[in-house]
Amino acid sequence: MRRSWPLILLLALLLPALAVAQAVRDPSPMQFTDQAEADRFHDLAGELRCVKCQNQSLADSNAAIAQDLRHEVLTLMRQGKSNAEVKDYLVARYGEFVLYRPRMDTKTWLLWFGPALVLLAGAVVVVNVVRRHSRMAAAGPPDSIKATAAVDEDQEW
Amino acid sequence: MTPIEKSTFSRWVPLLAAAAIGALLLAGVILSRSQDREALPSPLIGKSAPTFDLPVLHDASYRISSRELLGEPYLMNVWGSWCPECRVEHPVLTRFAETKRVRVVGYNLKDEREDALRWLEQFGNLYFVVLADYSGETALDWGIYGAPETFLVDAKGVVRWKHVGTVTQQILDDEVIPLLDRMDAES
User: Fold this and answer.
1) Which of A63, B20, B79, B133 is deepest in the core (most CB within 10 A)?
2) Residue B7 pLDDT > 70, yes or no?
3) pLDDT mean over B22-35
4) Which range, A93-107, B33-47, B142-156, has the best average confidence (pLDDT)?
5) What is the ipTM of this complex?
């Protein structure tokens, strides 16, 4: 327990560094009218990226701009905007980047289908290798099977 | 294809695949080193600047609307007394404003009025006019997410350029001035 004091002291000293380059405003907490609104808000804010600290969602970030955008999102929700309309609003201002789940278009299709394509390529390779081996095993005379096996041992990759 | 040809080709496949993955990783490393990798491209470029109507910092009884700035291009610089980088670019922008190449409009974001006025008194006021956005509401329309940020708006009110972060002399020479020349040629 005593050993953790230097660490706590260090963290306390580093705290002011976190405050750089952010406008200081009172962080007024979000007020929700009911649970349904709160749930919908948290779902939506979790899908939106903070533009300042880009590895956090709008829901997690403490940046001043995230605070403002959270209030803006709630205001838009109360104006009767759908989730898609709220997202459109933010995309029009900050670009596609604000969406954690990027939309599918010519720029993002590789992102969406890339992993599947790699998996497919791997499957094609595996099928080819298996087919070739079984063809060799079926066609070749018995002593050539031994030779194939020896080659296989050399090529472990 | 004879069996021999096929086997020489397939021997190269793993090497090619490894090279491709290596190139991808290298590109990632190089990209992550660039200084403005966190700067977002503005979707506003090439579109009409968002309309606004904001009080003037030095006399809050005056307001300036986006319509009043039409007719000539302007460089809009977002700053705040709370922003350390704004101090860094301040002398660069001051020297540029003195050339009177373009109007430089200040956009004071989420500041206290006294702090902002003191800041200008201390470092010098380079701006043609300073707009004050205390709530940061208009800033949302511009896609502003911090300071410093700088926009170039043409005579027709179309956003032509945006820079996130400190403006340096090199950025002015390489990007802003050539673009201003092109805009002059267009009109």
Assistant:
1) B79
2) no
3) 86
4) B142-156
5) 0.76
Give the distance from CA A79 to its chain's centroid: 29
Written as one string, the DSSP assignment of B93-118 is: HHHHHHTTSSEEEEEEES--HHHHHH
What gap in Å lies between CA B142 and CA B137, rounded to an integer? 9
Nearest by CB: A21 against B84, B136, B137: B84
CB B74 within 8 A of CB B102: yes
Place of tokens 């956003």: B159
Output the pLDDT for position B146. Answer: 87
Question: Is the preceding omega at residue B43 within 30 degrees of 0, hence cis?
Answer: no
User: Which H helix or E strand runs over A130?
Assistant: helix A109-139
Q: Which residues of chain B are within 8 Å of residue A51 when distances are taken between CB atoms?
A: 40, 145
Contact B83 A65 (CB under 8 A): no
Contact by Cβ (8 Å): B150, B79: no
Indicate the helix (H) or strand (E) that contains B55. strand B53-55
